[in-house]
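Predict the 3D structure for this chain.
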Amino acid sequence: MKGDGSMEMWFSEFHTPDVKHSMRMTRHLYSKKSDYQQIDIFETPEFGRVLTLDGNVMLTERDEFIYDEMMTHVPMAVHSGIRDILVIGAGDGGVVRELTRYDRVECIDLVEMDPMVLEACRTYLPGNACRMDDSRVHLHFENALRFIRRREAAYDLIIVDSTDPFGPSEGLFTREFYGSCYNALREEGIMVNQQGSPFYAEDARAMQRSHKRIASTFPISRVYQAHIPTYAAGYWLFGFASKKYHPIDDFHPASWKALNLHTRYYTTRLHVGAFWLPAFLEEMLEEVEEKNAET
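Done. Predicted structure below.
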């Protein structure tokens, strides 16, 4: 409580049982429970509007560009023939917003389990949801596992922008799901997914499980990184998996630069650097890759 008698409001998220990340909030703009989860949107002085699901930060206006740019521009800069895209999750619209900046994209299927997330973001986070009405975007409010089982060689790129591998999104981190993604991709297809943080023990184990399953499914599987202040430890990973394209060997920076897309985080130099990982993380990934080789 302040000295003038008014109450300060803080939102706190546990990153581990012993670590909390807190933001002061000025207004609680939205709070509803859907069939799947608790959805809240807060106003904060430092990070602008913040979307949380079941008490976990999904995005903030201040740093969402880092996550959304790294999910989209990395694969788009490697494979110049991407036309048909499947996006799983991402009901806030940030990934879709970035993808619609490419003229060559013809179709984006967005599969989001919870229509209330999209409606909340349309109202309170229009900077993210601003391209949901693009004619190339097709919304599917259904279970992603069921949706993708019905698709075969339909996409050039699949982006799995799910919540963490606990609760409603657990099924999006299984070997069966990655196999379905493989089948839904064309011969030159790429899958990108969020891999969480490698810093805290529980997150690190989940990341290793996921990487092991992806590496056993796709011939090319690499992990890359970004620094996102409001996510656990401020350090986040993504997976790049492909049937054909290597994220560095098949990367042609001049082609992407010729598009003249303005970005705030992604650059062609950063693209290469994002795949150079610290020693502790390389060791964690090698550990599960070696186990794959043994089995």
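Residues 1-5 have pLDDT under 50 and may be disordered.
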